[in-house]
Write a structure and sequence with these properties.
Layout: H1 6-23, H2 26-29, E1 36-40, H3 47-56, E2 59-62, H4 68-71, H5 81-92, E3 96-104, H6 123-140, E4 147-152, H7 167-172, H8 175-187, E5 192-197, H9 203-218, E6 225-228, E7 231-233, H10 239-250, E8 255-264, E9 273-274, H11 285-304, E10 309-314, E11 329-330, H12 347-352
Helix pairs in contact: 6-8, 9-10
């Protein structure tokens, strides 16, 4: 029997994969590995975005709606509307919910650190406010949210110290981290509690995060996992860096989740800036191929560690709208997800599901 030309076989295989993708989502391809989640806002829970979310994902994370500022803007007032709408959407569609985030130095309202006269509050007052906030929020969603990012980004970018010099740290020292986990665990003993951070795989910061986590684990603090945010690019992390990070953190007995995954097509930049005249922000063939290779590598590694990785969450539904369109370069279009601006799967998508 005459064999079909190799190029025809390749086309047939591609067609088969694409046809399967129309009926199976990311969540289905990874059903034997880990939940696949996505960060959402209330506006993404209707129309075509909602259809894509329910087809592809089985876990959602509120991108902003549960952060301190949006959910607790005043001491005597909680705004439950947006957060409730996300939880209700998840319940209607049988999806898991990751809560994000109970304690973060950014998007914390000013009143949290001030008394009636505008002076900085004492350690005792701040810890009581933190307890009240965490207890109230976690209690409201007890049994509906399976995991929480309890403390977010507490490790400094400055390598000369471990903890960021936030107001939480200035007023409470490192005790606020311990207490945050204790308050969350007391409010919902069944919830899985995470420390969440970025640049977790960069060797120097990785070791400082490891020291913090080891200290918490050794002190029997109720921490169950570490979230690797996964704000990566086509240039990083390397395979060795990512594997080492996963092995290092899991050696402490902690679960590992990739909590905020996107793959920027640009090199990492720390400082905000304006888009430069003539700066090319198109999704070129070169960028498409680089991103494809990076996503392929990342998910191959994730699958290798399915015994310790308990979830992977993308930070954005599609390239139509992402936070990277504004940060760090305002107005520069980024293309960091697996779905394009028309909500169609990109070439990288098919590499991620081809295993």
């Amino acid at each position: 029997m005459k064999k079909a030309p190799i190029n025809l076989l390749t086309l047939m295989l591609l067609f088969s994969i694409q046809a399967t993708a129309q009926t199976k989502g990311l969540k289905d391809h990874y059903s034997n590995y880990f939940p696949i989640g996505v960060a959402v806002s209330p506006r993404s829970l209707t129309g075509a975005d909602a259809q894509l979310i329910t087809a592809q994902f089985n876990s959602i994370t509120p991108e902003n709606a549960m952060k301190m500022g949006p959910i607790h803007p005043r001491e005597d007032f909680y705004n439950w509307t947006l957060a409730d709408s996300i939880v209700h959407f998840a319940q209607r569609h049988g999806m898991k919910v990751r809560g994000h985030a109970l304690c973060w130095h950014e998007q914390t309202p000013d009143w949290f650190f001030k008394d009636a006269s505008g002076k900085t509050v004492s350690k005792e007052v701040l810890l009581q406010r933190l307890k009240d906030h965490i207890t109230t929020v976690v209690n409201r969603y007890k049994g509906k949210i399976y995991a929480w990012d309890v403390v977010n980004e507490a490790v400094d970018d400055d390598s000369s110290r471990i903890l960021r010099n936030s107001l939480f740290h200035q007023i409470c020292g490192d005790e606020f981290i311990v207490k945050a986990f204790e308050y969350a665990h007391a409010a919902d003993p069944d919830a899985v509690l995470f420390y969440n951070d970025y640049n977790t795989e960069r060797p120097e910061k990785r070791e400082r995060i490891y020291k913090l986590l080891k200290k918490l684990v050794d002190a029997k603090v109720p921490i169950h996992g570490v979230g690797l945010q996964g704000h990566w690019s086509v240039f990083e992390p390397s395979e060795d860096e990512l594997r080492t990070a996963i092995e290092r953190y899991s050696s402490l007995g902690l679960k590992v989740q990739v909590t905020e995954l996107d793959v920027s097509v640009y090199p990492w930049e720390k400082n905000r800036r304006a888009k430069r005249p003539g700066e090319n922000d198109s999704f070129t063939a070169e960028r498409e191929q680089q991103q494809l290779e990076q996503y392929k590598k990342l998910f191959r590694i994730f699958r290798d560690y399915k015994n310790v990785i308990t979830g992977v969450t993308f930070w954005g539904v599609s390239d139509r709208r992402t936070w990277l369109d504004e940060y760090p370069v305002h107005g520069r279009k980024n293309y960091p997800t697996l779905f394009d601006q028309q909500l169609k799967p990109k070439k990288a998508f098919f590499e991620v599901i081809s295993f």
